[in-house]
Write a structure and sequence with these properties.
Largest sheet: 7 strands, mixed
Protein name: DEAD H helicase
GO molecular function: 3'-5' DNA helicase activity; ATP binding; nucleic acid binding
Number of strands: 37
Helix content: 25-40%
Structural class: alpha/beta
Keywords: ATP-binding, Helicase, Hydrolase, Nucleotide-binding
Bound molecules: zinc ion
Number of helices: 38
Organism: Suillus plorans
GO cellular component, one term: nucleus
Length: 1090
Amino acid sequence: MKRSASSTKGASKRQKVSSATSTRNQDKEKETLEWPEYFQDLFKIFKALNTVLAFVSSHRHIATTFPMIRSSAEGLLKRPLELSKVAELKALLPDVVEFAYIPRSDLRIHGETVSQQNKRSNSPNFMLHPQSLAIDTPLGYRLPGHEEEEHVLVLEFAENFRTPKSGNLVDKRNQRFKDAVVELMKATPEGEVSTDLLQAAARDHIPVNPSAKKALLANESQNLIIPEPEDRPSIDNILLEIQKQQWYKNQIVDRRTFKEKVAIEGLLAEPLSHTIQQALRESRNITSLYYHQAAAINAIVQRKHVIVSTSTASGKSVIYQVPLLKFLEENSNATAILIYPTKALAQDQRTALEQLLCACPGLQHIKVATYDGDTPQDHRRTIRETASVIFTNFDMLHASILPHEELWRTFIKNIKLVAVDELHYYSNLFGSHVAQIIRRFRRICAAVGNQRVVFVSCSATISKPSQHMKRLFGVEDVEEIVEDGAPSGKKDYLVWDPFNVKDMDSGVAKLGQSGPTWEAINLMIFLMIRGVRVILFCKIRRACELAMKALRQRLSAEGRLDVLAKVMPYRGGYSQEDRRRIEYEAFSGHLLGIVATNALELGVDIGVLDAVIMLGFPFGIANFRQQAGRAGRRSRDSLAVLVAEDLPIDRNYVKFPDKLYNQPMDDLTVDIESKVVIEAHLQCAAHEMPLSKDDAFYFGASLGELCDSKLRKDKDGWYHPHPKFLPYPAKHISIRGADDDKYTVIDVTKVGLPRIIEEIELSRAIFELYEGGVFMHQGLTFVVKEVSHDTKVARLVRADVNWITKPRDYTQVLPRYIIHHLDWTNRNVDAMQTHRIKEIARSPHKAYFGSEWIISGTITMFIARTGVDVTTVVFGFRKIRCVWTLADILSISKSLFRGNKVLDVVDVDTPPYERQVTGLWFDVPKDLLGLLKEKHFNLAEAIHSASHAWMNRFALSPDLRTECKAAEKEYNKEESQRKRPARLILYDASRKGSVSAQAFDHSGEVLQQAHDMVETCSCKDGCDKCIHSATCSEGNVVASKMGALLILKALLNLDIDADSVATQFGSQGSETIVEATYIRPLDGVQVEPA
Ligand SMILES: [Zn+2]
Ligand SMILES: [Zn+2]
């Protein structure tokens, strides 16, 4: 190992100090003789460091950076000192050993105060690696979320720590070491080896350099080389190697190998012009077309609508680009609209088309433009007047292009082709809106005399593609192309069942060295260091952050900062700038690993990946296949691994892995009969051009009734928007759901240089941002310093802490140091006053509408306390340090896992956040409550699932919220203080919202639809068609399909055969739900008929 040259001057002095202390300690040494040799050796190291630090602290002008301490200690020990050993000391004596990275500026502050007595403020000892300052990062880029500032590793021993003994500082510290070893040996459970536990715990104490790229230099001597992707071993060999690892315990429960596939070429009915051939050859190196490409182009040229549903990366964009060039060659006035679900994707595709046009003689002058929400107003006119092709999205078509059709008339008249990429994105509620937008668009095209627009769609592999396209576009005669002519490499699929540690009373297991997250990360690291590019998909944001944090710790502990520098997390909530940068890094091949939520599932081309790891079964088979499809292309072999979590749906696939491959995909659903959605778009359509009853051709049979009841008719019989939607109906309809109020999260670590790192929705902010809490961003921990609910701003500082708050996954994801735990009992959503009451058809029960009250706040943190100090250490910023010894942790985890004592409680002084909203609710009938209890249903599961089932059937529910139930609360064995009423509550996401009033109007029919869906859904324990919600803030963990069905049946007054209802296998927690009490209506409220 390479060491920085260090002062020899200090070393000679140190000898003296050293011999003095060792004489004094000789007697006490005897008692350590019974220790395992390992601890005796560790003690030698501790004593050497103790000596060096004692010397240094008496000469305070020398800052105690680790490299400097290390070389002196090595001088005493006469052998190299490993970082991991210091981490073990830190794990053993957390209140004595201070071992962390701090910003270099803080060190300088430290130095400057000292320099008042001493002139050596510019001593090279103040730097970690003096030469590293001059050298720029070898990778030429910077990880987002990392401070620009350099950090240095500081090693210090505390002077004040708990100790009953008197004596000099060096002796006191040595004594503390001995005590700690004895405590640890005592606390070690039977069958465990205390040194193993210490080594395992030490991993978490390896300090992570927040500016990892700089630390790369510290690593260069290790000669660790990641193979270039081209030179990586084959997946076959890697899988063989995995099975020889000591941690491999038959986790692979299923393996399928899909053979390599050769390309199938297709022929065009009429050959392309020489110019187009030249463009394809020059810009893409394309000289022949795959079967599906040729088939699609043939159909489009004959003016047929086309849907192509083939694998990822099968060259789908060529399908509409080639006909587009052909149309432009035939008529230079031709125009086209290309639609993508995200801006990033539109950007990628625009660049690709520009290159193609540029290489096509005669078409170089053609203008293409992006037209999205970011397009400045003053550019929009130029684009309308000069561009031939626009790259846009449905939001713009809905809110900007169609409402201004008169400005776009020339463009619309000349449209030859509309391509909608990633068609599978448009389903469910968003798809229902899009279907109506397309109908509005077709109507305007027809009105300006353009009857020949060709619609082209591309999608991932979906079920019944042409049926989906027909419903979405409202067109017949769709040519469906599903035969994939693109070649593909060999692909292996694994189902990986993490080693079950549940019944194993292992200390190592409790320290978090097991479980799905740990195994997924283990696998990811194993692949990355062999040059395999991996994406790890997590289901929720928090899992993504935890996985990234664990990756940082593991890779730092193993000294693989070179790998760490090539891993990035990617999820919603990050700033646009960070996201673009990560996409760019991934695409340009700089990254080896990405940890992502499904925000990356579609869209942006992130280049070639070799392996996909899914941490937990994603929502639905289609998602599973799309995520798996992210890996592998052309001639390379690839791998997709499903790491099963401890959830019913995952266990099901572990048992029956065939289903992953054989089970048909769910049909994409688009509700084109939803009167709520149709009415909304009729208001828009009528504004674009007055409606007549003939427009039922586009909008369906309900048009007449809706026009008569909801629109305004003029004397000539034309329908116009209802005045309440004027002057701009499109503004009243949000097609992707209302935006929640957002909190801005600012990193204020660097004084005077605040940086916005995230924006998070109010519904999350309440529980993720509270003073003193830990917030995770890109796997780094921050402590929340200040939250203002008035300005919706949270200020955070970087702090390396070994704990997290909100242990929602604590039994499976992080059985690590569970010291923190939020009390959720004080979040409360409940009905307050009844304004309207409505009958449910054929049922004695009612739907209610009125005001609801949301109170959240007064968060309590539980801190397990045995020798835990919560202190404030000032290193230029506030840092909360929470320390405990390994022996403490073992006893804490025992007591936590056996659930018998809370060790300490700290109240966080957060003012309660209250707001009043409008919403609707259904009370669970009393008789049913009795039955559910008798059969041991968990009421929270049933209510939560029934609420989601209802929302899944209501077209505008993205604008609604329900109270999502959290596992850590519902499955808590301890009796909860606050009971909640047995009530399905749905409320407006936005305070300005009025969707809940519409929801109330349709409450009964939606209830019936929800019931029918849950009853007929073919899934076993619930899926995203019936009771799961993709937007559930608690990941749908608390769910019961049967419970939901019974509630829906009871509300609809349908027969329930109590005898046939199976008794559930014991509810997991103490009951949190009680019968709902009647909410008093306002005076004079009449019950409305169903
Ligand atoms: Zn289902
Ligand atoms: Zn939920």
